[in-house]
Specification:
Length: 336
């Protein structure tokens, strides 16, 4: 299977299909997975969504989300779906290590075809059909295009539209990043199909808990450092912070974006000390790229303005390493 037409022919009869997306799934990963699942179920396919780890509580309202199998906690059921699959859709990731043990299990199923739909740079060659577009705002935008390219735009109802809009909203930061005229045409069509923009914005961005708001205040008041000579801001979280605030998956979503609200900050880093690893998220403004920095120094990657990675050093060493490599990527500013 090397073309969209071959895939369309393959899907002409009902199939057992498993959809997966990356560990620590965000709005785009979950939205793309559910949108594609709803679409395929309309064509009488037996569809399962298997994610490596839990999805954020802020997305619990999405239709079909509670049918998702989480490999970490439902390994037996997830493996059954993976072993029975005739076709895999891999969404919003470019390398198999982003889905951990689920990727190993997927490759053991020699009878299944693999289709990847993703907007990250440098995709690995593990798929039978790769649909890659680094210029896309999100994988959800690509799922919209995928469905329309198959000639099934009429099947996009408000349920599918809600899922797609969720991924677009979250990956673009409410249309602040990675936008294009093409994206806004997609969004206009989704609104025409019944998507309620105000309602979704409210569900996604106005649903913080008191704990999450207090955590944000702690980060800004106690864990923020500005390095003016490199127009860089850093927020860190320690293991103690995780314990004191009882931080769960999704609680830190969006915190890094507050650094970019500062006029003098062009590069933002959010560095989090977890039990066995230190995670780093990077964001930037305009033409400043953080992708190469994440790839070369923190075993990661991503997009020009949004990337991430990890370190096996402790928090202090990781922060120091990040500061040491800033001069390699960003021009020092002088002040008079």
């Amino acid at each position: 299977m090397t073309s969209l037409s071959e895939l369309k022919n393959f899907l002409s009869l009902p199939k057992n299909i498993t959809i997966t997306a990356h560990r620590n799934p965000d709005g785009d990963a979950v939205g793309a997975s559910l949108a594609l699942a709803h679409y395929l179920k309309k064509q009488n396919h037996d569809v399962s969504v298997v994610l490596p780890s839990e999805y954020p509580e802020s997305l619990f309202w999405m239709k079909g989300i509670h049918d998702i199998l989480v490999y970490d906690t439902e390994e037996k059921q997830a493996l059954d779906k993976i072993e029975r699959a005739e076709l895999f859709f891999c969404l919003d990731f470019n390398s198999l290590d982003r889905i951990d043990k689920a990727g190993e299990a997927m490759l053991k199923n020699k009878n299944a075809k693999i289709v990847t739909i993703d907007h990250h740079l440098y995709p690995e060659g593990f798929s039978d059909l790769l649909i890659s577009d680094p210029q896309a705002s999100s994988t959800c935008e690509m799922i919209y295009t995928f469905i329309t390219d198959l000639g099934d735009a009429d099947l996009i109802d408000h349920t599918i539209g809600d899922c797609l809009y969720t991924g677009i909203l979250t990956d673009t930061g409410s249309f602040k990043y990675s936008t294009s005229s093409r994206l806004f045409r997609v969004v206009a069509d989704l609104l025409d199909r019944g998507v309620d923009d105000y309602h979704l914005q409210n569900l996604i961005f106005n649903s913080m808990t008191e704990k999450q708001l207090r955590l944000l205040g702690h980060c800004l008041n106690n864990r923020m450092e500005i390095i003016p000579e490199y127009s860089t801001g850093i927020i860190t979280l320690t293991k103690e912070d995780y314990a004191n605030f009882d931080i769960k998956r999704g609680d830190t979503e969006g915190i890094i974006n507050n650094l970019l609200r500062l006029k003098e900050v062009d590069v933002a880093a959010f560095i989090m000390e977890q039990p066995t690893i230190v995670k780093i998220s990077l964001r930037s403004k305009d033409d400043i790229s953080v992708q190469e920095l994440a790839q070369k120094h923190f075993r990661g990657g991503g997009h020009k303005n949004a990337a991430g990675g990890a370190s096996f050093h402790n928090l202090t060493a990781t922060v120091n390493k990040f500061k040491e490599i800033l001069p390699l990527y960003f021009q020092k500013k002088t002040f008079h």
